[in-house]
Amino acid sequence: MLVMGKLFGTDGVRGVVNEELTPELTLKLGLSIGTFFGEHSRILVGRDARVGGEMLMFSLIAGLLSAGVKVSIAYPRGYAPTPAIQYAVKELGYDGGIIVTASHNPPNYNGIKVVNAIGIELDRESEKAIEEIYFSERFHRSKWSSIIHDTTIEPRVIDSYIKSIIDHIDKQTVRSREFRVLVDCGNSVSSLTTPTLLRELGVKPYTVGCDISPHPYRELEPNPSTLSQSALIVKQLGLDLGVGHDGDADRAIFIDETGEVWWGDRTGSILSSYIAEKKLADLPRRIYTAVSSSKVVVDYLSQFNIEVAWTPVGSIYISYNLLNKGGIAGFEENGGFIYPPHLLARDGAMTTALLLELLAVEKKKPSQIFSQVPRMYSVKTKIPMPREASQKIVKKLVNLYSDTSYRVITIDGLRVETEDSWFLIRPSGTEPVLRIMVEAYSKEKAKKLTNSLIEEVRRLISDET
Fold first, then answer.
1. Which end of the chain has the lower number of beta carbons within 10 A, N or C?
2. Is 7 helix (H, G, I), strand (E, B) or coil?
């Protein structure tokens, strides 16, 4: 979603293909990014399988080459998961990376994500610097004799990435369990990595949508609704586990052996306690998670003496907190999980491997592991509206709840916690919608609270008009 005078949102630059995100825009953006990194910088470029990916990737590359940047394209044809590109940038000595992806957004969207030399998305100040170059058009254009004549192909992205994940896992213990796991790739780039990773770990993969196509068989956001078909397959075939990825494979949402789909903050809580006890005992017992995560995160991790630090929504905030302050992990309810020894960024395949190791070490079924975390019932919805209107609505709601006895958190939208429920209302950073998330200890309370919040938002909208 592009806003006048601003390009970057919560997670990169995103917009509707050929309406908001056009080759003209991405050409100019490539020039801006190339100017920011500087002439002779080495930039690795990749993409997911979305519509318009090749068109946008090559228009970006044209801008980068004009600025004198040395460009390498991930093999094959630029296809690679976002975390694989990020890992390759860090380990193979690139100055930065650009991924053409809109992650989980609707199929008419695409986007541009820019990462620095250590594989983390650019900080907000760097994003502002690129925006300033873009809107002022103060581009660096190389002299004709200095322009890089050709791009190069980078063939090491996938293999080096998979090897790193395996190096962080107790491979023999996982092999001993002879797991059978369903992988739902959403017809995107996790097709190139997760099935191969599982085979390397001695796991037998069953695949759904693991052929690359710009027209996926399901919506790309992995959640209980979009993964319902895969959940049914896991249960009917008696598989040990299922995992669903988003479009660029930095998320992993899991399905237990009974066919139940679990949100990422439950997975993150379980993995964090395991990592703190078994793998990273010498690091600060602290995790970072977005305000969109459940209040059960604190309830569960407190028994392991693990501090929970809240951040705004957006993995970039978690990454930089881990970099600057340290901790054992970071995660989001959407299935993004960060394991610092491997990469300071979300990684769906790394998350999958860690969960398999946990299951192998503890010799338990996924349903037994997930049942350790207190259960709350979730409702998530969104109301279409421009971002400015969303911000006005949230501001009014903050005023309404500021004088209550509830715990109120306003670092990103409005989060309100009661004894038996919580909710978050915030403007989306990637779509023109107002997002509403609700959890309660009963389904009835969750639905009732959601309906009352929707009515309240609609009342405030009518007051505006």
1. C
2. coil
